Amino acid sequence: MSQETLSGWARKLRAREISSRELTQLYLDRIERLDPQLNSFITVTAESALAQADAADARLADGEQTPLLGVPVAQKDIFCTEGVRTSCGSRMLDPFVSPYDATVVERMNAAGAVMLGKTNMDEFAMGSSNETSFYGPVRNPWDTERVPGGSSGGSAAAVGARLVPGATGTDTGGSIRQPAAFCGITGLKPTYGRVSRYGMIAFASSLDQGGPMAATAEDCGLMLNAMAGFDQRDSTSVERPAEDFTAGLDQDLKGLRIGLPKEFFAEGLDEKVRGVIDAAVDVLKGRGAEIREVSLPNSHLSVPAYYVVAPAECSSNLARFDGVRYGHRCENPEDLMDLYTRSRGEGFGDEVKRRIMVGTYVLSAGYYDAYYLKAQKVRRIIADDFRSVFEDVDVLLAPTTPELPFALGAKADPVSMYLSDIYTIAANLAGLPAMSLPAGEIDGLPVGLQLIGNYFDEARLLGVAHQYQQETDWHTRVPAAFA
Amino acid sequence: MEWETVIGLEIHAQLNTVSKIFSGAPTAYGAEPNRQACAVDLGMPGVLPVLNQGAVEKAVMLGLAIDAEITPRSVFARKNYFYPDLPKGYQISQYELPIVARGHLDIELEDGTIKRIGVTRAHLEEDAGKSLHEGFELMTGIDLNRAGTPLIEIVSEPELRSAKEAVAYMKKLHSLVRYLDICDGNMQEGSFRCDANVSIRPKGQTEFGTRAELKNLNSFRFVERAINHEIERQIDVIEGGGSVVQETRLYDPDRDETRSMRTKEEANDYRYFPDPDLLPVVVDTAFVNQMREKLPELPDAKRARFVEQYGLSDYDAGVLTAAREMGDFYEAVAAGCGAPKLAANWVMGEFSAALNRSEVELAEAPVNAEGLAGLLARIQDETISGKIAKEVFEAMWNGEGDADTVIEAKGLKQITDTGAIDAIIDEVMANNPQQLEQYRGGKDKLFGFFVGQVMKATQGKANPAQVNERLKAKLDG
Amino acid sequence: MSVEASEVQRIAHLARLAMDDEKAREFAGGLSDIFDFVEQLDGAPIEGVEPMAHPLDAEQRLRPDAVTEPDNREGFQAIAPAVEGGLYLVPRVIE
User: Residue C7 to residues A333, C24, C25: CA-CA distances in angstroms?
Assistant: First the structure.
């Protein structure tokens, strides 16, 4: 049963081979039985899930064919859900029961998806290992002594262990793709502006983008169809006609120009990972793609630029958490300053504080030009590199991460943790769509392949991934303990 | 030593949109606490701002009215600081690229000369909420209804040289925003607020002295008094051997003094940066032209036209155009009675006096333009005299009906029938033989006595010109 | 760049984060490493480059001036730490 994909379940539901209630109960049981090993959920909403499932069954009985109708999904706990705690992995929002739904949640509810619960994550999406969560670390289903990646580690682990067929994630510097790679699943970060950020708790507003995480490219396309779309409540939402992201799945790869950015294959890449990527390139070549080496000469600047821009935005975005209107408030504040500093001091964990301080510093008087403005300029040359490369190729291919999932506690110093996102950050700075899909296994651990597309080229990315998944079975593999 | 004062004003005008600048919550004044604060105004997690078109339109109209440059791509920035009335921990404002830049406003000085004051910039931003201290012990209550109300902050060049000039500038701007219908101008409710940067320097010196920022100047009177006090204070400090400290001072109208706001906090470090939730605001030529067409006739142009079209003095035209509503009212009265000068005298005289006496706004006046025009028409057609008209006006103000109704009811119609007037004159002459004899004996002064007697006998209703003419004929005849 | 514990205290205060001396010393090391790392930007070829604040070259959309948000004070204040008479409470603010 657990082998079935989200798209497979969707077909079975529409064919009435299984009811949404049965399917929902099946996954709720798996969560109850297996999640204690992973800690991938912060909140399980069993009761409302079954109610949603019954409503979906009624709609299915009426013959409604909406693709996600009755399909169980999970929401990363960064998306506001009305009447359900929305913690963002933080003590600060542990008491926060959202009075409204995020647009993504609203859209998925309208599509008839059944929400099983809210998944664990790095606190305020700041982390690459899911170790910064107030609710404890998430474990990798392939090896529970290792991290699932982050920040969408709960969603990745839950989908990897088939505790849910699909889940939402958000990606600011790789937070969908890196955990997808670490947990052996497919995850897509859409073009900036595709998916509304309304009700998605902001980390770095100009980089954050929500996206789907599931077993296959097809699953991700179905989910994205429900998630994406113009939202008048988000000024950065892109106004474009509705698009079917599954439309390009069956497109063959003949003549497709795939670029391999040489900087993503340089020093620092694990040799075994390189071998997996080379093999994947051969598969695509075999299906007619043309491969050529390209250069993104400034990509080595992406991580340092990111660690100025993202903390700057985060320092301001997280100023609203002050203990006044919602969220954690310290006991018996002596005065206003005490209320602020203690509520925030107690409510935020160390990594969040570190980034708030970096951001506060780079924006402060006398440092703005040297850090923030410079990073914004570097951001443009990085984006320009992509623009010129996409004049020659259709898709870029690279590893998602330089190394395999690492052990819990292995990366104690911040900078080495930050470098875990060395291949993913550039796409966020440029705002490009990018995805990770499973492309191999080393020592029983999954390896992710990254595809980066031109602006609004999600359908093509998903098509390439789908074609790859027609010829390989990495996306079907489930860790033995969760099979 | 002779000192020169240097003043720059920062005026915050709330734009009179129905909804907030970045959310769809209402902006009406006086609601119960926090009933007009939606998720965006409260800075709830994940919510996002979307810019109100009305606020942009009104800002552009102001820019056009002060002959300023409209920035084709202006940018919203975040001004970061923590305060309980600032729910997001930052205020969305404009910093490097304001929507309006480099305009000017002409003010009239006391001697009648015109001085041009530069407007450095005008930018859009959101208002903060309010802190309430009354009714709580050891606590402060926060009401966020005002949070997110659109403001335009209009910053003048430091070109004002006295408190009187500052007031003239402020009044001019106040009149302008009401003409443009972009701000209700209500100073009690805080819709139009002023901060003043004040410094002094020895006359002839070119560089500026250290300035103090005066806050809470929420009436024209306070502005003048606070600035004058501050000038005196700074002179005292410097002449006493001290130096002025750059600081913010709060004006206390009860004590009529400014006092320093405690500044033990670190020097403000607002960490401005472009708001990543908002995109550059593009105002193209088409948009500007559309706004230009929406511009009403502005005060200076209207004043010139009143002089030209109605033959009014420049002073009278200035008084009648100070407020848009008054200008409109005057024009309606003038058109209705066909006598522009008479209308001007009445609007500025009896009518304005009645408004002041009853303490009502023009819009609520018991006599409207049509009513007043009807009264003045009766003066014009000699149904009543100007003197009787005042009595009629009084009755109209008290709700006794329109001019004709009052004239009829009170029998105030002027007597213009020559026969009737002659009869009264004959009677007066018969009743005063002694005076008649003296008059005819050469005592010309007694003519006034006979006029008075005739008017008295007619209770003032006889047409004065006719009385004069007939009396002269009869007395001399 | 080496960040001193006192500098950490200054930034923490600006960011309203309670921070004792021990914690400040602990953060100083990590922050120093981060700023050293970020110094890589110093050699970047950015002369004459416009800063990029947004990934997409788009412009601000304008919302019609209309009231669309109903009053939900009860809903919002149900999750507030301290309210009275519809007001959010904070320790007394002296102006």
Answer: 25, 9, 10
